[in-house]
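Dear V.,

Thank you for sending over the compound details. I've combined the ligand you provided, flavin-adenine dinucleotide, with the protein sequence from our construct and run the structure prediction for the complex. I'm sharing the raw inputs here so there's no ambiguity about protonation or stereochemistry in the SMILES, which I know was a concern on your side last time.
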Amino acid sequence: MYDVVIIGSGLGGLECGVILSLRGLSVCVLEKERVVGGCLQSYRRGSWDLDTGFHYVGGLGKGQKLHEIFDGLGLMELPWHKMDVNAFDRVVIDGQVYDYAMGFDEFENRMSGYFPHQAHGIREYVDLLRSVAANIGDSEKSLPLFGVSAKQWLEERISDPTLIKVLCGTSLKLELTPQLPLYTFAQINSSFIQSSWRLKGSGQQVADLLKMRIESLGGVVKTNADVVRLEEDSVQVTAAVLSDGTRVEGKVFISDIHPAATMALLDDSKLVKRIQRGRLSRLDNTYGMLTVSIVLKDSGLPYTNRNTYIYKDVSDIWNPAELAQGRALLISERYDGTDHCRQIDLLTPVMWGEVEQWQDSKVMRRGAEYDDWKQRRAQQAISLAQSVIPALGDMVEKTYVSSPLTYRDYTGTAQGSAYGIRKDCNNVMLTLLSPRTSAPNLLLTGQNLNLHGILGTSMTALMTAAAVEVTDAIK
Ligand SMILES: Cc1cc2nc3c(=O)[nH]c(=O)nc-3n(C[C@H](O)[C@H](O)[C@H](O)COP(=O)(O)OP(=O)(O)OC[C@H]3O[C@@H](n4cnc5c(N)ncnc54)[C@H](O)[C@@H]3O)c2cc1C
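Below is the predicted structure of the protein with flavin-adenine dinucleotide bound, written out as structure tokens.
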């Protein structure tokens, strides 16, 4: 019997695995796929490793939160690469260019340069980002900000709608809605403005290193281990049952998969009441992404060390459905250590309703209509990217396209949602989830609980690991 059985080898599951192994507990991670990492996975096509859900991270500078966490996990030995301090993110709104400078003072100066008449509002916004960075991890300070609408907060301080679009302009790494909590918006923006980093190579390195660390500490990471059921006695969960019938027993269970999928493993549970299962299964999810991974001909596209976010004819940036009409795009380059770029990803949001008609299909067998749709959407993304890289069309050697259905099938995420459960400032109690469930030894982790992204998921992993240590089954 293991001390801790972890379902899912996404970032949160693997991080919990390392933290708890370091504390001397025996750990077993169960992953349904052949490869660990969930959204961190990369997949190989020819000689190229293509990323699924990892492009850059924020807050990895010395003294910043992600640095502290990654240092403790042994991840700082990876080849991190600081992005352009003058313009790590570029926002292009209907052809007009705005660059994000790295560092709070530099960011404030840059934005005030673009919008001198809004200097006061910009100062208030940057003060908020500073305070969120300084108090990260302090729930007393952060919780009240979850109950405030980011949209309302910005609109009360900033009268120029273009500036609001610019401050929201890097937000394809979250989902903007009128209900988006101010804390989610500020925490993500603050960490990337503090400092932004890429990896030389793919995000898979993060997952592989965490797996190696668990194994070197005596833990086990099993791939092709699809958990189909959780067994329980009258007191607690006793075993995770795999699709081949294998039972993996443990004292504590951590689920790193979507809470709705976790609840589906607990059919007829007496420990987790039907009402809690129903509530967790019905929560809304954020939109998914269409990712066009492009391998470029060796034609000399210079590596620019920044991301570019493009918006075209967007009237309401807080309306995900409008952005998902092909009007918003993130261009992210892969850093391979040279000053040329051979691989770029184009990411554009997609609402579930657009792909729902093919929801019963399986990978590679979704039919001609789906393939046509995918190609049409990919072409639309490439055309939008050409507004900033005009020669892109001639540089394409190969494209590989994934949709929310691909994400759903490879990561088990409900509706292929990119950033998990949609948070609602008007319903904080319902949409912010605790790692605890009503089964005393079943805990949750991962991006769906509080905050998504590499930093958010890592912070939640710390919370979940701390909760394990005070679980009666372990004490
Ligand atoms: C397109 C995209 C781009 C992104 N870009 C960035 C970025 O640039 N920067 C950033 O900070 N964040 C980014 N993110 C977010 C970040 O990748 C995620 O927040 C984070 O990786 C989620 O980790 P997780 O622990 O919640 O698990 P997940 O990645 O959701 O992994 C869950 C794992 O559980 C496994 N699983 C599911 N069901 C079962 C089962 N029944 N049995 C066993 N295993 C199971 C899955 O196969 C998967 O491996 C991006 C996400 C997406 C989708």
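A first observation: The mean pLDDT is 94.

Warm regards,
I. M.
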